[in-house]
Amino acid sequence: MNSLLVLHGPNLNMLGKREPEIYGRNTLEDVNQALLLLAQELGVKLSCYQSNHEGDLVDAIQDAVDQHQGIVINPGAYTHTSVAIRDAISAVSIPTVEVHLSNIHQREPFRHHSYIAPVAVGQICGFGVNSYYLGLRALVHYLQNVPSD
Q1: What local confidence, expressed as pLDDT, does residue 148 receive?
Q2: Residue 80 annotated as lining a ligand binding site
C-alpha cells in the first residue's frame, strides 16, 4: 500500500479565517479529515503536516525518503520564493503534485511564477479545497501507472 504525504505551507493553518472569499470557509482540519477519508477510499495511507517555516517543510520532504511514495504540496507563498523547497523536491525524486486553492495565474503577477512546478509531476489550482482532493486522486493515478523498473 502506497503511503503519501500532504504538506501544507505557510498560513494554511488559517484556512476558514483568512480571506474566505479567496480561500473558502473550510478549516485545515476539515481538509485533512476529508483527505484521510479519500485516501482510505483510494487505498493509500496518508500523513498530513503543516508548517509556516520553510526549513520545516524542507525537513519533511527529506524525511519522506523511504517512507512515502508521493507528496501533495501546497507550498503557499513559498511557491513563488523558495528555491530550497524546490531543491528538496528535486533531491528526493518523490513524485510530487503541487496544489493551490486559488488560481495563482489569475492573481497578482508575483504569484504567477512557481519554483515548484518544474519539479512536480503536475499542478492543480483554482478549485478551492477540491484542488487537494483532485491532487490526491491525480497522484494516486500517477503512481498506479508509473512503469516499474
Answers
A1: 64
A2: yes
Tell me whether residue 102 is annotated as binding.
yes
Nearest to 36 by CA among 133, 142, 141: 133
Q: How far apart are CA 48 and CA 30, in angstroms?
A: 12
Q: Which domains does the chain have, with CATH numbers?
A: 3-144 (3.40.50.9100)
Q: 103: annotated binding-site residue?
A: no
Angle between helices 83-92 and 54-63 (to 10 degrees): 0
- Residue 133's nearest CA partner among 15, 31, 22, 30 is 31
Find out whether 137 and 42 touch, Cβ atoms under 8 Å: yes
- Structure confidence by residue, pLDDT tens digits, 65-124: 999 999 999 999 999 999 999 999 999 999 999 999 999 888 888 788 999 999 999 999
Residue in 68, 78, 100, 133 annotated catalytic = 100
Answer with the residue of higher pLDDT: 114 or 18: 114
